[in-house]
Amino acid sequence: MQILKPTIIKSNCHKIHMNLGLESYLFSNSFIQSPILYLWQNDKTIVIGRHQNPWKECNLQLMQKNSVWLQRRSSGGGAVYQDLGNHCFTFLNTFTNEDPKTINNDILINALLNLGIEAQASGRNDIVVGEKKVSGSAYQLSLGTKVNPNKIALHHGTMLIDVDQNALSQYLTPSKKKLESKGIDSVKSRVTNLKEINSTITVKQYEDELIKEFIKKYNDVEFKEFNSDQLLNIEEVKKESERLSSWEWLYQYTPQFTVNLEEKLKFGMFDVYLQVESSIIKDGRVFTDCLYPDYVTKMNQVILNKKYDFDGIKQIFNEMRIIFPQQNELSSELEEWLLKAI
């Protein structure tokens, strides 16, 4: 894609891996000579940092039940929740003597001022109203590619407008279990919705004001819009979205961690220790007073090198049912417990 004049790009797709795929395409595979404002929103999603452990940060079982997407991003930082009450922005600027971050923050802050909200930049990455954080962002610089030799500054972030605040604690609170990880714990910040400051504000009103301020800054602006089908027709976007939604990216990048699960079941007391690397069970042991020792001995072998996820647990007990068809009730009880426990 060639961007020869200031451009606003809007995605009408709400799937985060596709929206991130378009952002990556713009940043790495487009010829950019003028500023871009890319506007996008995501359906219910937990976004974790590159080196975080989803099993520690998230209640994955509840997320699966409620169709909440998990997304790992390439940058660092902590886990956050997004839904359609959250608005995402990406600025792409050719690098000049002017600080693009300051220019972009002015556009964001002026858009809020138009809605009667006085905000200011705080620290390196935030926009605050009073002491409450309403926006967080991150930055990346490209020194040039084969497609685009220009230096490009990427500034992307979110604006909290009417995000489900209950979901923040609901999905970012993992089930209680003994889990030690080398990953990075999320840092809880004091945040608020713009809706709590101005009860009449909507996402569309905010987006309209943001567009107005971008046009005011750059005057002659082009507008491009994409839906899901159009995004998938861009080969680079399709490939990147497939990578970002793959099991390998979402789970295999997880740091090494250990899990200890303990429960009293009908067949006895079960104590399960698992050593997990890149979301694969590399070592494990089941301790129990169960009266079926051959079953447990075999299970200690079967669990090795399985995925530490719902499909992996199901695979373990599919194999156990084949090997021990007479112990189907035991397999079902253990499977039901472990699917809930992880």
Automatic annotation (TrEMBL):
Gene Ontology CC entries for this record: cytoplasm
Domain BPL/LPL catalytic: 31-222
UniProt keyword annotations, A-Z: ATP-binding, Cytoplasm, Ligase, Nucleotide-binding
EC number from the UniProt entry: 6.3.1.20
GO biological process terms, semicolon-separated: protein lipoylation
Enzyme class per UniProt: ligase
Catalytic activity annotation: L-lysyl-[lipoyl-carrier protein] + (R)-lipoate + ATP = N(6)-[(R)-lipoyl]-L-lysyl-[lipoyl-carrier protein] + AMP + diphosphate + H(+)
Keyword ATP-binding among UniProt keywords: yes
Domain of life of the source: Eukaryota
Pathway: Protein modification; protein lipoylation via exogenous pathway; protein N(6)-(lipoyl)lysine from lipoate: step 1/2; Protein modification; protein lipoylation via exogenous pathway; protein N(6)-(lipoyl)lysine from lipoate: step 2/2
A single GO molecular function term of this UniProt record: ATP binding
SUPFAM superfamilies found in the cross-reference section: Class II aaRS and biotin synthetases (SSF55681), SufE/NifU (SSF82649)
Gene3D superfamilies listed in its UniProt record: Bira Bifunctional Protein, Domain 2, CO dehydrogenase flavoprotein, C-terminal domain
CDD domains according to UniProt: LplA (cd16443)
Family: Belongs to the LplA family.
Protein name: lipoate--protein ligase
